Amino acid sequence: MSVPAARFDILQKRLSEHSQTQVLRFWDQLDDQGKQHLASQLEEIDLDLISHLIADKDEKPDFAAIAAAATAPPAVRADGSGAAWTTEQAFERGEAALRAGEVGAILVAGGQGTRLGFDQPKGMFPVGPVSGRTLFQVFADRLLAIEALYGKAIPFYIMTSDATDAQTRAYFEANDYLGLKQDNVRIFRQGTMPAIDAKTGKLLLASKDSLALSPDGHGGTVRALKRSGTLQDAHNRGVKMLAYIQVDNPLANLADPTLIGHHLLANSELTTQAIRKRYAMEKVGNLAQSDGVVQVIEYSDLPVEAAEATDDNGDLKLWAGSIGIHVIDVAFLDRVANEASALPFHRANKKVAYVNEAGERVEPTEPNAVKFEKFIFDLLPKAQNAFVVEVLPSEGFAPVKNADGAENDTPMLAKKAIVDLSRKWLEAAGATIAEGVMVEINPRFALTPDQLREKIPANLHVDEDRYFDRGHFDRE
Ligand code: UTP
After folding, report:
1. How many angstroms separate the alpha carbon of residue 113 from the centre of ligand 1?
2. Rounded to an integer, what distance in angstroms lies between the CA atom of residue 47 and that of residue 52?
3. What is the 405 CA–ligand 1 centroid distance (Å)?
4. Confidence (pLDDT) at 342
5. Is 329 within 8 Å of 270 (Cβ atoms)?
6. d(CA 4, CA 97)
7. Rounded to the nearest 5 degrees, what angle is found at the Cα of 369, between the Cα atoms of 281 and 295?
8. Rounded to 5 degrees, what are φ and ψ at 206?
9. Which residues, 6+ apart, have CB-to-CB distance to 227 below 8 Å?
């Protein structure tokens, strides 16, 4: 079906009003399908918004002033200090919520994973050091273990993007939804944003009939939850809060009762896990409180003096680094999803492949484009009683961001972190493990160190790589 002249005229006029007609440069060379494709993409994008973002005239927060006045956010530390309740009380409160079926899980898996350079969605990356299980499997195993323990289903909401949707759906279908009930798994797709040429502000073409589009950031979750009916699904199931994690962190304690309990006891609408920064200028988002509002100040916006400021004990005042693990109230998401511009767009300079004026595809070696992304942590200032819960990196944070060989956040380091934690649990339960041997525990075998102690024989010695799979000792 060809694109009618009237439709083309409207498109051309809109583009011309925004000085973006270059995207029609190859129109006459396109077949009907190509024309349809490009026209549909162009009709989907909000050119007014894009022009506004290109102009970049919005007033920026004065992060230097905010940071100078900022204090640490309300938080409970890893040793349990800082809250008016104990960690045990939080654990029990979280368990009650899980038993009541009030918790859903949301996994954001729409990123393009460019740094890792894996040619499938990151969730399909085999991260299990012994099992070879994928990130998706690790999280599904965890949910199955929690469901079995508390006797209530946890709906699993997985956000994909154009970059990951088809392969993710195919993967879940081909693998029997990883043991989860299909009815409890809901895959929904986030929106996209066009990339612009960093020098000229012009929309880029990825091919002659296609804009260079990318996912609109993990902050796109809010809109996508609403548009896809997923928020409504949560309501229908009586789910009151969503445990949010990012697909790249195999140590993420998805639907952790203690975190959920802290969230409830703090009467918070948005609770976020954080790690203690190892040094002042560490490249993580900084959780800070200023004027009673909790927010993330990106490391690039944090002046050195504020980063290095210490408290009476000589510890960093802004100690809390954001790691993208949250508990978010469904009612809060309802409220913010209805605010049109709930979250701001951030600009990121990235390498984006494009088609040049001569129609040749260019793979840049340096950042050439600006991408626009929303960040989920920008919800923090909008939340009542935002609260921070410290987790030790060894127990909750080992992201897979970069390819092996990089200095940090590599698959090799994530696998090592899994082995180290498994080893620690096993040794605490009385096992001895030979030097250099890799161990890994499926959450369905043991979800906690206490469960593990009940499961393994006394004086267990492990002298070769071993995966403690479900029913491991039942079979022996
Ligand atoms: P990152 O910011 O690390 O980006 O995402 P990425 O796309 O995975 O990796 P690079 O930067 O291209 O190398 C953190 C988490 O947020 C999700 C990712 O899937 C990951 O779980 N995310 C990111 C989305 O779901 N959508 C997005 O638009 C961006």
Report:
1. 6
2. 8
3. 20
4. 75
5. yes
6. 56
7. 35
8. -85, -30
9. 191
Where do runs of H (alpha helix) occur along 45-153?
47-55, 63-69, 87-99, 135-150
Looking from the CA of 198 toward its CB, the CA atoms found within 13 Å total 14
If you take atom 28 of ligand 1, which residue's CA is the nearest one? 217
Beta bridge partners of 207: 210
What residue type is 72 in one-letter code? A
pLDDT at 319: 97
DSSP SS3 for 373: strand
- What CATH class does 63-397 carry? alpha beta
Q: For residue 215, give the ligand 1 atom closest to its CA.
A: 28
Which residue is closest in CA terms to ligand 1's atom 22?
A: 111
Cα 247 to ligand 1 centroid, rounded to whole Å: 8
Question: Are 333 and 382 spatial neighbours (Cβ–Cβ below 8 Å)?
Answer: no
**Tokens at residue 311, please?**
């408290």
What residue segments make up the domains of the chain, in order of their start?
A: 5-44, 63-397, 414-468
10-residue stretch averages of pLDDT, the chain, 476 residues long? 90 96 97 96 94 88 91 97 98 98 98 93 98 98 98 98 97 98 98 96 97 96 96 98 98 98 98 96 94 93 94 94 98 90 89 96 96 96 97 97 96 98 97 98 96 93 96 58
Ligand 1 atom 18: residue of nearest CA? 111
Contact 219, 373 (CB under 8 A): yes
Q: Which of 108, 161, 397, 409 to mutate to test the pocket of ligand 1 (most atoms within 8 A of CB)?
A: 108
Closest CA to 403 of 414, 390, 419: 414
Model confidence pTM above 0.85: yes
From atom 9 of ligand 1, which residue's Cα is the shortest distance away?
Answer: 113
Does the beta carbon of 161 lie inside 6 Å of ligand 1? yes
> CB within 8 A of 172, min separation 6: which ones?
136, 158, 178, 185, 187
As beta bridge partners, residue 349 has 370
Counting other chains too, the contacts that 134-137 makes at CB distance below 8 Å and 24 or more residues apart are 135/247, 135/248, 135/250, 135/400, 136/109, 136/168, 136/171, 136/172, 136/178, 136/247, 137/178
Mutate to test the pocket of ligand 1, among 164, 167, 248, 326 (most ligand atoms within 8 A of CB): 248
Alpha carbons 100 and 80: distance in angstroms, whole number: 25
| Ligand 1 centroid – CA 172 distance (Å) | 20
